[in-house]
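Morning!

As promised:
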Amino acid sequence: MSNSLATVKLEQVAKRFGEFAAVSDLSISVYPGRIYGLLGPNGAGKTTTIRMIVNITAPDSGRIELFGKQITPALQDRIGYLPEERGLYKKMKVGDQIRFFAELKSVRKQELGRRIDFWLDRVKLTEWKNKKASELSKGMQQKVQFITAVLHDPDLLILDEPFSGLDPINLELLKEIILELKGAGKTIIFSTHQMEIAERICDDICLLDRSRKVLEGSLRDVKRSFGRNAVALRIAGGDGVLRDQSLVSATTHHADEIEALLAPGADVQVLLRELIKAGARVEKFEMIEPSLHDIFIARITENQ
Amino acid sequence: MSKFLAIVKREYVQRVRTRMFVVLTILGPVMLALFAVVPGLLFSLKTGGATRLAIIDETGDAKLYERFRTTLLDGDDFEDHPDFASSINANTRDRIEQAGSSLAGSFSTERVDLNGRSLDEVRRDLNRRIAADELDGYVVLPADILQNPESKPAYYGRNVGDVITQSQIQERLNLAVNRQRLILAGVDEGRLNSLSRPVELETYPVNEKGEAGERDSGAGFLMVFMVGFAIYLTILMYGQVILGAVVEEKETRIAEVLFSSVNSFPLMMGKLIGVSLVALTQLAIWGAAFIAATTWLLGASGVQDLKIPHLPPLFAVYFLLFFLLGYFLYASLYALIGSMVTTTQEGGQLAIPVVLLLVFGFYLAFPVIRSPSSALAFWVSMVPFFAPITMIIRIVSQTPPLWEIVLSLFIGVVTVMLLLWLTARIYRVGMLMYGKRATIPEVVRWLRHS
């Protein structure tokens, strides 16, 4: 993996806005054919990092390479970018709109029409081609915006919260397309704070917090390094035990299950014994890998 | 380059296609007409019927009252009936007065004699009638008015703010008293009529080569006003269009997608140029419509002496240059504001000083029209923010020396370039700043950092 040429490489990149450090000393590498999750709470520096990669803002210091080259405006045509809070020209027809954005990415005129029809069909919006953007639902608009990011067949696709606000059917559709693009060898940077989705599609992740990288690696390695220190529980009673900070550092309540993250150094056997001693009815007690969500919370709280 | 053209094309095609464009293209000339005529009409419009006037005649000579009554009721004895040509050619002032005389010129009079009472007593009585709304006003004609040139008649009325009615009373009283004085001095009534016929001043323009032109009928003023107004209106409208377009791209975050494909500078220029083409299209339609309309009027009315005012041969070129100058000046200011704010409303507030600057330039048009070669006219036509309106007015009314035009253009172009440079830097940063309106210190910091 690391012996192949990185699509995106950041070396000790920093960006400040006045007194505020948006990104500090960030080095990351994103490899071809992989989905790279850029994760972190709001204000961690994700958007600034992405903007520097797509050459919207320049870093104060450090080096950014795309496809092994220093970034140039010409390389921008090989990037597809879907920003987080995105919009369309309200009064412009969907087809015209896609055509305009494609022209800005230097797509050849002869191919334009065919590609627009292909993608509209792919996301099931063909009959909306001649409607104005303002007539579309929010989810439909989001799909149109997704088309504008992929129509020019970019080698690097950067998606900032692409799934927010999508219904499950469209979410699946988009996920399927993203995985297809990955299969075609495209590199995808995916920024989100929805850990469940990141967990399902990312190959590698990078966790940012307050301008700094706190964690990077393949999803598998990250999870492994955290060890099997979480327990999935289906119990009745025993709430006091779960609140004991010497045993459990955090709990997450799902519909009928509780995920408990063991406190550092705590013995899982002691937890089980204490629960029974407290008179809890235990239906399920399973050692699991921590979810990305738990890792996220643990690292961010640790960092504070 | 093809990206830049794509931006220009989008701005142009999307805007020319809108219903708004069609409506404005039709509405523009209508608004012009309203601006030119309606304020005058409204001012001269007097509702509520005839002015009821009592006349206290202390002279005891019934002839003066009768004469005054006649002039009041009939208006000016000598007035020609305006024919079609003169009503088209009339300048704004004339038209306002014509409208005024037809709308406000009615009086009803009654004679009040002292009959041995004192003047104060009669006035008290009349004041009471005014208060009771039986009367609108009264005129006191002193006993020595026909003999003593210093004698001062007086008008007492409820509404002394109605200057049009007052000036009509004054004018007609003046006429009546003068004629009566002349008759008393032994002038024959018939000769009086023929001798006191008013003279008519004919106006001829003299051009820069010292040649006298065709008789000017007042249409020159209208032409100058229309040209100035067209520039003013178009800059104002399309400046707002730029503001809206920039705010839309910022508000919807489209700017971010655009910036990931194109540099901010071609993006901004593409927008400015695209919209300028829309404005030029509109002006071209207006120009063509104006020429068609005047040609048709000439043909249909059969009027021979309707003169289209003489325009300098390079007028179209000058118009284009000064329009573009004004457009880019104001549009870049609007773009700058648009990139600083977060909503259209905020943009509107922040743009008020810019609008005021433009409106001020438009008002400067009036003194410049009156004396296009004055020092004031020279200096304001050198100020880039006023030059587009004031210089084009000078060119139409009394073409200044070429060096003045070139200097004004030069100053303007340098200012535009500086402004575009400044705007581009602020735009680049501002378009990506969300959340709140940028403060001036912040903008200064962006300038230093970008």
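Chain A touches chain B at residues 18, 51, 54-57, 73, 76-77, 79, 81-92, 96, 100-101, 103-106, 145, 148-149 (CB under 8 Å).

Hope this helps with the figure draft.
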